[in-house]
Amino acid sequence: MKRRDFIKLSSAAGVAGIVGTNLDAAANPMYAQAGGFDLHPFIKAHPEAVFVYLTNIKEKTDQKGTHDAAYKLASEMFVTTQGGAGYPNSTKIAAKPNWTCSPQSEGYEQSMGQVTDLGFIEGYLKGVKAKGPQEIYLRESACNNQWAPLGFQAMADRNNFDLRSGMGNVWDIPDQLTFKKVNNGIVFQEVAYQYPFNAPDSFLVNLAKYKSHYIAGGVTGTIKNLQGTAGSRFSNFCSSTNDIFRTMDERLFPYFHRDGWAHVQEIHKIHAAAGYPRWDKGLARMMRAPFHYGLYIEQWAQRCCDSYSTYPIGKNDIHILEGIYWRDGDGFTLGPHNGKAMDVMANMTLFGKDPFKIDNVALWLAGHEPGNFGLMHIGIERGLTDVLDPFDIPVYVWNKGKAKKVKLDKLKRTPLRVDYCTLEGEDIYHLCDEPFDYNSWKRTGKIAAIEPSIKAIGTDSNNHIVMDMSVPEKGNVYVDIKNSAGEVVWSMHAPDLEPGNHQVVWDGFAHPGMCNAYVKGMGWDAEREMVIYT
């Protein structure tokens, strides 16, 4: 018997049309009353992929343009569901922006480049809310005293987003925290997170900022942004592990390993001997002693991985690296332009289900070689990722709700110089672009063969059928959809298609019943039955 996919289409023109065009999701009770929501089926089916969203914003101060681009992205990334599919609309959206401490004397514009763009956050979360879930929570561990002067609180208030600090002492606010044990942790035994982060009734929306950072492995990507989901004193990954039992309240001691610092030192020696780049080199200048050397970054990376390991990554989450404009330098105000950092209109936002893969691709696009960063190696060692070579990660350009597979080197790179583990004789701000031999680090030494296939995996926000097509080799690809009588009702020709998984979108609303999907290339083919019903 042939394998068969069952796809249900809405009998209406598409529930997405209910929202209207004013980009305001605040008053759409229809979504909250029935059904649920989910990620676009192609995004959900490919957690190994990184998606690239290109925009055309001219100035970083164009908050309306950024807001609208983010709203559009969210409305394409999420779909409404019915019949118990996806996530119920009662799910709490746990949104984590990068709202690090930044200058506030001149207002929000001065902080741009250091924090996730405010217009992007507002537009994106309104787009999510329009798909059904009404409870939007914003949490951040850093500098809540800046939320009002920088406009964060006003944005939350006008959208009825729940913005508050969950940064009290563990023993004072246990009902505002989510506690997670760390299996085989190096520094942590248990971590307390600001609720609803890491809670079973939540969906994580990780809204990181694309910028350099002197600690966070070149760019402060989606992995580091999760650091700020932890509660008070737990989120201080950037402080020395050696200080935990010297400076913290003793009531926090049970959450940490007593031998954590000794363990970090031991692992660092092993990694330095194994050749981790920049892990054991001296520094020409230490602008922020002791932050710019391998041992310090080792302890930060291990704490990151301890915490990361508690999240059910890929289950109820999406990770976005907002890149309307990117910042170089130290991640704050210092940089290579007469001592100052600079923003560049890159108009390239990354997203996906796997933070390690997103940040890997982000490093390469920022002019670095991902293999030169210890965090990437530690992630593999601890079983949190399985890829080091960015060219082993499938990359798709996301345009108008559709994903097109591209070669990574076809995308524009925007170099971001950073003061990361500066070597003797090297400029303080530099690219970590030394050649890296990925073959010696790959687990298998080869990429698994791709079997040809085509299957229906769901519907998009336009109520069109989304198919997942696997192409084993580069070449011309042909797709035919036939009805039960054997008549071709739709066909597609894709010339010179790259190998890998590709998204195929078909408006199958006019052809309910049994259909057959056929795909073929030079010397290979595949087919699949689907049943379309309303």
Describe the structure.
The structure is a single chain. By secondary structure, the chain is α+β, with helices and mostly antiparallel strands. The protein has a domain at 51-58 and 94-440. It contains 12 helices and 25 strands. The strands form 5 sheets. Strands 3, 6, 7, 8, 11, 12, 13, 15, 16, 17 and 18 form an 11-stranded mixed sheet that branches. The protein has a 5-stranded mixed sheet with strand order 1-25-24-21-22, with no helix packed on it. Strand 24 (513-521) and strand 25 (524-533) form a beta hairpin. Helix 3 runs parallel beside helix 5 (118-129), helix 9 (260-274) crosses helix 10 and helix 10 (294-308) packs across helix 12 (374-381). The longest helix is centred in the N-terminal third of the chain and has 15 residues, at 63-77. Mean pLDDT is 87; it is low at 11-32 and 282-289.
Chain-wise SSE layout:
Blueprint: E1 4-8, H1 29-33, E2 36-39, H2 41-45, E3 50-54, H3 63-77, E4 78-81, E5 87-88, E6 92-97, H4 108-111, H5 118-129, E7 136-138, H6 152-159, E8 162-163, E9 177-181, E10 190-194, E11 202-213, E12 218-219, H7 222-225, H8 244-247, H9 260-274, H10 294-308, E13 317-327, E14 334-337, E15 343-344, E16 348-352, H11 355-365, H12 374-381, E17 395-399, E18 402-406, E19 453-459, E20 465-471, E21 475-483, E22 488-497, E23 500-506, E24 513-521, E25 524-533
Parallel strand pairs: 1-25, 3-17, 6-7, 6-11, 7-8, 11-13
Antiparallel strand pairs: 2-4, 2-5, 3-16, 9-10, 11-12, 13-15, 13-16, 17-18, 19-20, 20-23, 21-22, 21-24, 24-25
Helix pairs in contact: 3-5, 9-10, 10-12
